[in-house]
Amino acid sequence: MASEGLSYDGCNFFRQRLVLSTLSGKRVKIKNIRSKEDDPGLRGTVLFYQPGLLYGGSVEHECNPQRSIGYYLEALLMLGAFMKTPLKATLRGVTNDRTDPTVDLLKSTALPLMKKFGIDGEGFELKVVKRGMAPGGGGEVVFTCPVRRTIRPIQLTDPGKIKRIRGVAYSARVSPQMANRIVDSARGILNQFLPDIYIYTDHMKGANSGKSPGFGLTLVAETLNGCFLSAEMTSTPQGQGDPVLPEDLGRNCAKLLLEEVHRGGCVDSTNQSLALLLMTLGQQDVSKVLLGPLSPYTIEFLRHIRDFFQIMFKIEVQKPLEDERKGGDKVLLTGVGVGYSNINKTLK
Amino acid sequence: MDGKVRKPKQHQQKHSGPQAEKKKLKKHGASTETDERKRNPKAFAVQSAVRMAKTFHRAQDIKAKKHHIPLVDRTPLEPPPIVVVVVGPPKVGKSTLVRCLIKNFTRQKLGEISGPVTIVSGKKRRLTFMECNNDINTMIDLAKVADLVLMLIDASFGFEMETFEFLNICQVHGFPRIMGVLTHLDSFKNNKTLRKTKKNLKHRFWTEVYQGAKLFYLSGMVYGEYQTQEVKNLGRFISVMKFRPLVWQTSHPYVLVDRMEDLTDPEKVRIDPKCDRTASLYGYLRGTHLKNKGQIHIPGVGDFQVKDVNFLPDPCPLPDAQKKRALNEKEHAVYIDLPASHVNQLQAEMQPTTELVQSLIDTHATLDAKMAASKVSLFSGSATLDPTDISEQSGEQALWDPKTQRERRKVLFAEEMKDDDEEDDEDEEEESEGGDEGESSGEDDLSEEEDNEEDCLSAFLKKSRGDSVKASGPPVKKSKVEAESERPVFADSEDELEMSEHEKEEEDEDEEGRTPCFILFVSTGALKWKENLQLKASQAFLRQQESAPNLRKLVYGSVVEVEDDEDEEELGGLFRVSRPQNNKRFQANDLDSSHFHPDTTHNWDLEEMLNSIRDCFVTGKWEEGQDAATLLKEDEELYGDFEDLETGEVQKGQKSEADSDDDGDNEVEQSEVKMDEEESRKNKRLEKKRRLKERFNAEYDDGDATYFDDLKEELQKQAELNRAEFEDVDDETRVQYEGFRPGMYVRLEISSLPCEFVTSFDPHYPIILGGLGSSEGNVGYLQMRLKKHRWHDRILKTRDPLILSLGWRRFQTIPLYHIEDHNGRHRLLKYTPLHMHCGASIWGPITPQGTGFLALQSLTGIKPNFRIAATGVVLDLDKSVTVVKKLKLIGYPYKIFKNTSFIKGMFNTVLEVAKFEGASVRTVSGIRGQIKKALSTPPGAYRATFEDRLLMSDIVFLRSWFPVAVPQLYNPVTSLLLPIGQKDSWSGMRTLGQLKHDLGIRYKPNSDSLYKPITRAPRRFNKLHIPKELQKALPFKNKPKQQQPKGKTSRDLQRPSVIREPHERKVSKALLQALSTVHNYNRKKTHMVQHSKHKEFLKEKGKQEDAKLKRQKEARKKLYRVMGQMDQKKQRSSLKGQPK
């Protein structure tokens, strides 16, 4: 056929390219993958991807413990709603680590975000069955997602004020006291702003606690308009780097949340690209979303969207007013959907 | 008459008399309906609750039926022209109708029309007329882009197959508006037959379209045109018609091409005449937004990547939104595409033409310019028209020379093109020749073409209509008519020239569009426009850069390579993110993570940092309008005064108290202050009222509003947002955000077009650029639901190639038909069922589910029967459904133990058997069994157990299902690439039947399958042997009887026969005779007596009967007399008067 594929260099933004290629039906070729390094990590340095159709159904995958499940899950969240049959993915591996958004974070932020686009219903769920900390893994996550034919446009321009902060302090294969220590320190900082703070402690024992010890905290701030801002922090993996005190971790995580609040917007920095993708895949209507400063990942994602879907977003910077104390500059992104319809879904 | 104008008699109202009284009564008791109800309540009482429920139910059903799923209204503010397709069999009056309609709207007469014509029909509406020829390819393509179909029907002949075929095509590809137009009504001499025919046709049309579909009657021709009033009415109908968006059209961008320009390097063409071409295609964008560099499909040509898209100023703009009731004459602009352009010429423009040409000769102009020049020459050629020249120039006939590289010169220079020297020679020649000759030749060619066409048509007509063809209608397509008709054009266009008051560039472009002379400027115009575009784009971009501080540039890169550091600093936190972008190479192999690591600058231990986000929390400061205090206050105002019913205590709103206090205090104060207060209070009151009302409305509506209403409102809001969002953005930027929006006039540049597209370009055939959605450019397996069309006379065979029209595409493919069994298995069918849906699997272009398609067996030839073989819908887009066919493996027992047998001949190796271990087998006689294990010898033999002992004569079979692969044939129909005049003769892969027929191969049947006379050997049954023991136990009834045949009777048992003596014989005979005589005599005698007695009796009886009758008669007579007397009495008394 006449459609020409796209070509990229380097291994970065690998998931974006594959996801967009799959959704747009365009072939993609990635060259020079770590070509200068001694250990490129693959068998070769070039990858060619010809997208097919997304089947869905029951999938099980043993994720590589080098990256956490969040890495896989992020791509899966983007594709989940466009399968032929509802997806039920069981992912095994590392549930929480420092490089990728943890499953707890995605559960509490990405899912409510997707609900705003009309991806909801009974089968929409992310469940942490077992927890597995960084080097060893051994965690298990079940992600189920219903299938949608079309995506609703959204208008998220006003995040509203933060009404409550929730969180999960988890610990596995360490003293259950760790979690309580994290909670105390985090509350110490956040209580300056809000009384409605509740941080659950989640201590996994026995078979559900994975292979490695570790602990961490995920904080989510919910606004009046149903937007979620989040921050998280995980202890350093066993045997890699200096150990972290739970108090420090709690405090730092709370500060990270403040940072996230400072950035603001209706979607937190981790899920920016997800929101933009779903806006792109919407009907041919205008969608608007207010974001904090765009992360480099998101910026690259915007470029990729332009490559794959020929869609550009109108980007407007909203500076805070003089007397407003609402953090930094915000970015309002406006775009028109491509009118994507799920071609995988069967018509009965 | 004495100068005084006599007034018509005025109506005098009656003031008395029954009429006036009636009226008065009516006026007083205005509501007669309610009166009736009051007067006669019984008649309106509930008679039956069931019936009432039924009527209510029905009313609700009807109401609900009217609901459509609400759609977001995405029509742009300036919609593209409405595509009006004029369809009908040949010789039905299509061209005449188009001409008449154009004349009706624009007061301009056009001659030969060979392509889409766009006109302005009203303040907010433009129309594009397109005539559809009798090629099924064209019919399919145009049905996909039509908004309105004018379906011409020859009333003198009735419906033809083409009409029904087109209707079915429309049904499959979304139903555009269809309006029937009956022509040739003047051929009816008898008024009654006319009426009858009209009615019949109307009702048939209704069943096909919908009940009450509009059918127009064009009663007759006047000087080769339809009657003005009728055309005017039709035009009015068209210009007020409303359209419902069609799914495929609203979800795909498409362009009905107006103009085509070949941009290929002429040198390249000279070296290799068959090289791929680059062309730019022009037209209004319709449907939805078109993305640049997207993929398109040109039906009849193939899939292409758009190299570039630009939007151009509208050649046929809508008149400005002035407060005018009607358009004046000038505003009815006509835009005729390139194909038709040679008909419209402008004498006044001759001078610049030649200048331009000369300049072109001097300079080595670009191809674009050359192209334009060639067009110019075309114009100059056709500028003046002299009908007398027609006969002279019959030599230039090579109109559609396939070797010609440019179709546009077809009219004039086909022969000149033979010498390879390109434009220069041509131009010179043309100059020297002057206008007249060129024109005439052009005209001549046209007429020639027409003649040919007519010939073809008539030939076709003969075929399709049989003997009933009549030479109908006056000769419309005569060049003379055209010649006359072309005059008014330039008067109008000159007006346009005068009118234009924009800057010079725009003027040029404007003229291009509005007046038929537009192409004249293309050479310069196009170049200029290109320059402008770049300039404009860059300017716009700079502007954009300035306004949106560099974030846009940061993300999407920029044309302008200006790095300003100030911006970065300006944005602070936002801009740090751009850094990695600058050294992209470094970034390429980074870690792929969506985490956004915070910069360390923010120290969250500082109070001021904390303060900077304090308002993000509900505990922070609220905005003016949303402050809790203000909200409370408002609430209080609303519900300030209330009485606590439980305590009986009256709560007074604070405000009112204050008010009363104020009142007391302020009495003495100045009036000014009071006025102020009054004002504010009034405002407050109003505000309060408004709020109350709002609240009430909200509550009230909540109770009543249905889901449907909510949805509608939501979509309405979305539509408003869509319209408003990019309204104030300039077009260059806007195009980047939303793509090119429908209604824009766009130019698409497409490279690598096959050369035949250009060389055998025929403007009569529509060129459609259909945009493809994401992944619609790919090919894959499709599952479809298909039904053979009930009017198609043959069923379809699996693996026979079929031509499908699906989405934008027409292609040939090989379908496999299958049907789903009750257990979900998809079983292959050899043929489609007669009256049922079945599944079809094909290898074809990925098209969204729910898209309809139609199938044809061939595109060529004129067949009397219905050509649409099947219709259906796409269900699924992968090969998850495995089509299977039944496979019976046969084996024979070679050794039989009790219930175990050794079977051979089913498999060839041990491995094969191993695969089928445990499979169930069966004999023909119905004994079931199971495969157990393979045997070592002979290879492929196995041991199987059965539920009963087999016989050596049994045949064992294993029923299995074998997956069938769908053949991967996807062969796009490239009908537009065929030479001119043969475009309807595309033929692809032949069916097996056709192939055999063509090659003269006869089917050689398996000799085993032939029927032979049945010879059955007589069956011998063995004696039934019942054991003695059993015999004993049986009841006598069932015991075998000793059934020996009877032997011979012995001699002693045989009785002797009696033989009489002659004397004995004599005596016995005489005696017997005497006795019988006596007996006979006696019998006769008694009979006689009896007979006479009976006679007597009858006589007596007759007498009695007579007497009885007589008596009865007497009695009756008496009775009647009495009755008559009574009657008389009665009558007499009635005459006297009413009896009391």
UniProtKB/TrEMBL annotation, chain A:
SUPFAM superfamilies: EPT/RTPC-like. PROSITE patterns: RTC. The keyword Manganese does not apply. InterPro entries: RNA3'-term_phos_cycl_insert, RNA3'_phos_cyclase_dom, RNA3'_phos_cyclase_dom_sf, RNA3'_term_phos_cyc, RNA3'_term_phos_cyc_type_2, RNA3'_term_phos_cycl-like_CS, RNA3'P_cycl/enolpyr_Trfase_a/b, RPTC_insert. Residues 157-261 form the RNA 3'-terminal phosphate cyclase insert domain. PANTHER family: RNA 3' TERMINAL PHOSPHATE CYCLASE, RNA 3'-TERMINAL PHOSPHATE CYCLASE-LIKE PROTEIN. This is RNA 3'-terminal phosphate cyclase-like protein. GO terms for biological process: endonucleolytic cleavage of tricistronic rRNA transcript (SSU-rRNA, 5.8S rRNA, LSU-rRNA). GO terms for molecular function: RNA endonuclease activity. Residues 8-43, 46-315 form the RNA 3'-terminal phosphate cyclase domain. It is found in: Nucleus, Nucleolus. GO terms for cellular component: nucleolus.
From TrEMBL, chain B:
Residues 79-244 form the Bms1-type G domain. Residues 1-14, 1083-1094 have a biased composition (Basic residues). Coiled coil: none annotated. PROSITE patterns: G_BMS1. Keywords: ATP-binding, GTP-binding, Hydrolase, Nucleotide-binding, Nucleus, Phosphoprotein, Ribosome biogenesis. It catalyses: GTP + H2O = GDP + phosphate + H(+). GO terms for molecular function: ATP binding; GTP binding; GTPase activity; U3 snoRNA binding. It is found in: Nucleus, Nucleolus. Residues 479-489, 1049-1067, 1095-1109 have a biased composition (Basic and acidic residues). GO terms for cellular component: 90S preribosome; nucleoplasm; small-subunit processome. GO terms for biological process: endonucleolytic cleavage of tricistronic rRNA transcript (SSU-rRNA, 5.8S rRNA, LSU-rRNA); maturation of SSU-rRNA from tricistronic rRNA transcript (SSU-rRNA, 5.8S rRNA, LSU-rRNA). Residues 385-396 have a biased composition (Polar residues). Its main location: nucleus. Residues 417-456, 492-512, 659-678 have a biased composition (Acidic residues). Residues 1035-1047 have a biased composition (Low complexity). Residues 1-43, 385-514, 644-685, 1030-1067, 1083-1114 are annotated as: Disordered. It holds the Pfam family AARP2CN. Belongs to the TRAFAC class translation factor GTPase superfamily. Bms1-like GTPase family. BMS1 subfamily. This is Ribosome biogenesis protein BMS1 homolog. It comes from Gouania willdenowi (Blunt-snouted clingfish).
